[in-house]
Inverse folding.
């Protein structure tokens, strides 16, 4: 029964002129799983998703949704999928309830059924009170939720989510994650794209990493992360602290060279087990190296990327990523351009995992 | 805490087995039926009407143009063309109606272009819906605009002293003909809307077509005053057919062959431009 994959694609190609936005990607998404497509801006994630969702013609290779050929029978495929785009695809001039009613009508619901479904979905997505408000007055998070609700009207078995949380604040992000999990609990398959390893880690059963239109890795989030170490201890040394001494201590405790980031006095220490952080801190205390701040972070997309491709993501300032263990400390580097600093994956490991 | 840390993401909740997708696949249909297409077109028309109601400035063109142009043309050209304002009105009013309806067609194309650039059209494309409905829906709603434009023109004429000899029925017939023709010709502008890159582009292209078409016709002056070659053109110009048919209906209350020519032109436009528009829409993005 579940032998038939939700998505099966082979040698998928999309060309824009000479540029291959998607270059020979193979993909298999099993029914009932959350599959994450991870990659930086411009990697080809959205393009690939649009091809699978019948929104862009396929230039090469083939794709099937539950065994139905995307290029040959797009109308059938559209009855099996819900698509939530990166930019809210709802009507600005209509109210939330009117939007859902319209989409219900367009998918063959009778007027009364469309109204009931709209009301149920609005309640379910916490938009009950905003039902009669126009979308132009909605916040970003509300729009995304409405957008997602609009994709669920006919309960399609496969949902495409294009960067569902990009631009959302952390709390709304968490809510969106819960909603996505509930979808799968209800028997949906979810294919989502994301720029955040953190998000893929939280949600996805399996992940594929895309770079320059090519698939560079595939596996469970854990498998991906083990390629870069499980977590990173980030140390900000107090002003005037002996950086060389600190490095030596880390080397002695872990047998590994810490990564110095462009920001001065900052050390990133890859940890295979997060517990070793304590050992490092104790050793530093004994060596009288004082520390301004400490955090344990999971590897960032940049670090995973560097491990997989040998270069950083396009978002990084250059290829001089944090995984560049032998790079000299660049004390004059631009502050704030530190990969891993600007991504939301910098979260307190303990609180996050006890959920 | 230690165990939790050592086993990072193993806390995933167990999930029930997903429903069999084969049933959902079996329920799918290869293409939308005629009934679906009709229902979807009406739903899209409902959307367009809602938007019109909420953005009343969309009515400025259909409301202001008849009032302004009728008065302007009547007082400026009336004396020169027909001797006095009053005897110019039977000639002018059907002409203004044709002009108003054509301008409204242009707005149909422009608004479609604007609409298609919005995110919601991504959703329409991803829904299992007829590809003609997103184009035909707004056009059904635009029938309201043609109706307002045509009616207001006749009303303005009446205010200025126009007394149509065709009576109420004749005028209603002329209005109906104008609305139908407008709807048909709007498909050409819808096609321009799907081809052009921007709403401004649609407007530019449409203007280039509209101006010659309305002024190189018998809409405002009798075409026998023009040079021979131009007179020949005005005779084949579809706008002239519409204007002549409307004059016959409104002023004399008679149904002439001009009505047939007008409807035929409309049909030809629909047959050519409806498939072209749908094909362009399918390819878009």
């Amino acid at each position: 029964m579940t032998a038939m994959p939700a998505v099966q694609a082979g040698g998928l190609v999309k060309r824009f002129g000479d540029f291959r936005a998607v270059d020979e990607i193979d993909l298999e998404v099993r029914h009932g799983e959350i599959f994450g497509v991870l990659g930086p801006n411009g990697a080809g994630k959205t393009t690939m998703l649009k091809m699978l969702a019948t929104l862009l013609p396929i230039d090469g290779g083939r794709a099937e949704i539950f065994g139905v050929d995307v290029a040959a029978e797009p109308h059938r495929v559209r009855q099996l999928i819900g698509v939530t785009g990166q930019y809210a695809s709802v009507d600005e001039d209509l109210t939330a309830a009117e939007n859902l009613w319209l989409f219900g009508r367009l998918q063959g619901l009778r007027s009364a059924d469309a109204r009931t479904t709209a009301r149920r979905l609005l309640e379910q997505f916490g938009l009950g009170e905003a039902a009669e408000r126009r979308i132009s007055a909605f916040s970003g998070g509300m729009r995304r939720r409405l957008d997602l609700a609009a994709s669920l009207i006919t309960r399609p078995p496969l949902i495409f989510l294009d960067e569902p949380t990009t631009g959302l604040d952390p709390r709304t992000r968490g809510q969106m994650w819960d909603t996505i999990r509930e979808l799968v609990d209800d028997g949906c398959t979810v294919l989502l794209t994301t720029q955040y390893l953190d998000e893929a880690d939280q949600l996805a059963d399996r992940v594929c990493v895309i770079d320059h239109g090519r698939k560079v890795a595939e596996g469970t989030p854990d498998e991906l992360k083990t390629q870069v170490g499980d977590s990173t201890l980030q140390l900000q040394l107090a002003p005037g602290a002996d950086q060389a001494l600190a490095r030596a201590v880390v080397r002695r405790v872990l047998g590994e060279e810490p990564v110095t980031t462009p920001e001065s006095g900052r050390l990133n220490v890859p940890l295979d087990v997060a517990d070793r952080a304590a050992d490092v801190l104790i050793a530093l205390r004994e060596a009288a190296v004082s520390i301004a701040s400490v955090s344990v972070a999971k590897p960032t997309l940049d670090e995973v990327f560097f491990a997989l491709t040998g270069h950083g993501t396009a978002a990084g300032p250059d290829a001089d990523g944090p995984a560049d263990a032998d790079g000299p400390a660049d004390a004059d580097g631009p502050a704030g351009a530190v990969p891993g600093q600007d991504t939301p994956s910098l979260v307190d490991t303990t609180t996050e995992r006890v959920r | 805490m230690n165990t939790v840390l050592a086993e990072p993401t193993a806390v995933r909740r167990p999930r029930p087995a997903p429903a069999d997708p084969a049933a959902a696949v079996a329920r799918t249909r290869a293409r939308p039926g005629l009934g679906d297409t009709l229902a979807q077109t009406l739903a899209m028309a409902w959307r367009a009407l809602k938007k019109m109601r909420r953005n009343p400035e969309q009515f400025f063109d259909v409301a202001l143009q008849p009032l302004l142009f009728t008065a302007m043309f009547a007082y400026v050209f009336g004396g020169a063309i027909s001797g006095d304002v009053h005897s110019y009105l039977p000639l002018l009013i059907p002409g203004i109606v044709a002009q108003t309806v054509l301008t409204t067609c242009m707005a149909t194309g422009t608004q479609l272009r604007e609409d298609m650039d919005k995110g919601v059209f991504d959703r329409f494309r991803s829904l299992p819906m007829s590809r003609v409905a997103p184009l035909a829906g707004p056009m059904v709603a635009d029938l309201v605009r043609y109706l307002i434009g045509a009616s207001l023109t006749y009303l303005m004429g009446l205010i200025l002293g126009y007394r149509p000899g065709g009576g109420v029925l004749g005028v209603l017939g002329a209005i109906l003909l104008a609305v139908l023709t407008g709807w048909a010709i709007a498909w050409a502008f819808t096609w321009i809307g799907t081809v052009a890159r921007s709403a401004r582009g649609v407007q530019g292209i449409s203007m280039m077509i509209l101006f010659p078409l309305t002024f190189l016709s018998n809409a405002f002056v009798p075409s026998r005053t023009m040079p021979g070659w131009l007179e020949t053109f005005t005779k084949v110009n579809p706008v002239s057919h519409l204007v002549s048919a409307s004059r016959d209906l409104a002023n004399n209350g008679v149904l002439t062959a001009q009505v047939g020519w007008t409807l035929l032109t409309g049909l030809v436009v629909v047959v050519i431009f409806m498939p072209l528009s749908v094909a362009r829409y399918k390819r878009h993005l």
About this structure: Chain B touches chain A through 51 residues (CB under 8 Å).
